[in-house]
Design goal:
Blueprint lengths: L1 E5 L10 H10 L4 E5 L14 E4 L4 H11 L3 H9 L4 E5 L9 E3 L5 E3 L6 E5 L5 E9 L2 E9 L1 E5 L26 E3 L17 E2 L5 E3 L1 E3 L8 E5 L9 E2 L1 E3 L2 E4 L5 H4 L1 H10 L10 H15 L8
Parallel strand pairs: 1-2, 1-3, 3-4, 4-18, 5-7
Antiparallel strand pairs: 5-6, 7-10, 8-9, 8-15, 11-14, 12-13, 15-16, 17-18
Length: 298
C-alpha cells in the first residue's frame, strides 16, 4: 500500500493533517510519501493507491493549481481507470473544478476535472456544523471557508441524455461532454444523489451538471448545515475513485464508518480501527448533539 500526501508544507489548515496521522495508524505497513512543493508527484510515474490533498490558504490554492496543471491528463487517467483513490478535504475540492472566481470577479482556472466552480467571498468566512448522510451512515463535521461551489452551466438544464434507472448516459452534443440528470425508473427526479440534477432545499431543480467522463455523485447529502453552497443539500464529489468534500473534522477521526469504508475501498480494512472504542464514543456523542431536534447548525 502506497499513500501520497501532496504538499503538506502548505496544505495543513484546520487540523486536516490529522487525517493522515490517523491513516498511518490504520495502515502501519503502508508507505507514506510526502511530496513537497519542489517535487514531482510520485503518482506521475509510479503506482499510488491513495493521493491525499487537504485544506490550504486561498493564495496557496493558486500555487497548487499551477503545480498540478501539467499533470492534469495523468490525474484524469488515474481517475478514469480507477487506479488511484483521491481523497480531497476542505477547499482542496475546489481545485478539481473548472475555475475559482476571486473576490474582484477575476477567475483562476482550475484543473477542470469536474463541472463545478467556486466563488470566493473573502473576508466573509462561512462556518457551519454539518450532519449528513453517507450510504446509510451519518456523517458529522464542520466547514469553515471563504467560498462556495456551484454547478456549471445551469442553462444546460433539460439538454443532453438523462441517466435512466439501470442505464448508461451517452455523450451530449457539445464536444463529447456528457450531461445528466438523476432520474428514476418512473421518470421522476431523484435529486438526492447526483450532482447533475442538483436541487435547492425546497426541492426545486437547480441545475444539471456537465461532466467530462464518469457519472458523478455527491459524496454526502446534508441533513443539517450547508452543502456545496447555501442553496443545496448536496455536498462533495463521489466517483469510484474520488472522495472530495468541504468537511473538516478531521474527517477520518470524526467518522469511523466513513474511515472503514475508505479502508475497504483500498482493500485494507481488518475490522477494527485504531482507538476504536474512543473514536466510536466521540462519534456517538457528537452525533447525539448534532441530531437534537430544533438544533440549527449554521
Amino acid at each position: 500500500m502506497r499513500v501520497e500526501i501532496l504538499y503538506p508544507q502548505v496544505c495543513c489548515l484546520y487540523g486536516d493533517k490529522a487525517n493522515m496521522m490517523y491513516l498511518r495508524r490504520c495502515l502501519p505497513e503502508a508507505e507514506f510519501i510526502e511530496t513537497s512543493l519542489t517535487d514531482e508527484p510520485s503518482f506521475v510515474r509510479e503506482d499510488i493507491d491513495l493521493v491525499y490533498l487537504c485544506s490550504m490558504s486561498e493564495q496557496n490554492q493558486e500555487v497548487v493549481i499551477d503545480l498540478l496543471t501539467p499533470y492534469r491528463d495523468r490525474i484524469r487517467s488515474l481517475m478514469d481507470e480507477e487506479r488511484t483513490v483521491f481523497l480531497l478535504t476542505g477547499n482542496a475540492l475546489e481545485l478539481v473544478g473548472t475555475y475559482i472566481e476571486r473576490e474582484d470577479g477575476s477567475r483562476k482556472e482550475a484543473l477542470g476535472l469536474f463541472g463545478l466552480h467556486a466563488v470566493r467571498q473573502t473576508p466573509r468566512r462561512f462556518n457551519s456544523l454539518i450532519l449528513a448522510d453517507f450510504l446509510g451512515a451519518k456523517i458529522v463535521g464542520y466547514t469553515s471557508r471563504f467560498s462556495h461551489s456551484y454547478v456549471d452551466e445551469p442553462d444546460l438544464y433539460g439538454r443532453g441524455t438523462d441517466v435512466e434507472a439501470g442505464g448508461v448516459s451517452s455523450p451530449g452534443a457539445e464536444g463529447g461532454i456528457i450531461t445528466k440528470t438523476a432520474r428514476t425508473g418512473d421518470g421522476s427526479r431523484d435529486p438526492a444523489t447526483l450532482l447533475g440534477g442538483e436541487t435547492t432545499k425546497d426541492g426545486n431543480d437547480l441545475a444539471i451538471m456537465p461532466y467530462p467522463y464518469d457519472p458523478q455523485m455527491s459524496l454526502f447529502t446534508v441533513v443539517k448545515g450547508v452543502g456545496l453552497n447555501p442553496d443545496t443539500t448536496l455536498e462533495g464529489i463521489l466517483t469510484p475513485s474520488v472522495y472530495a468534500t468541504y468537511l473538516l473534522g478531521p474527517l477520518l477521526i470524526a467518522n469511523p464508518d466513513f474511515t472503514k469504508h475508505l479502508l475497504e475501498k483500498l482493500g485494507a480494512h481488518t475490522g477494527t480501527l485504531p482507538f476504536d472504542k474512543e473514536v466510536q464514543l466521540a462519534y456517538e456523542k457528537k452525533l447525539a448533539e448534532y441530531s437534537k431536534p430544533g438544533l440549527d447548525l449554521e
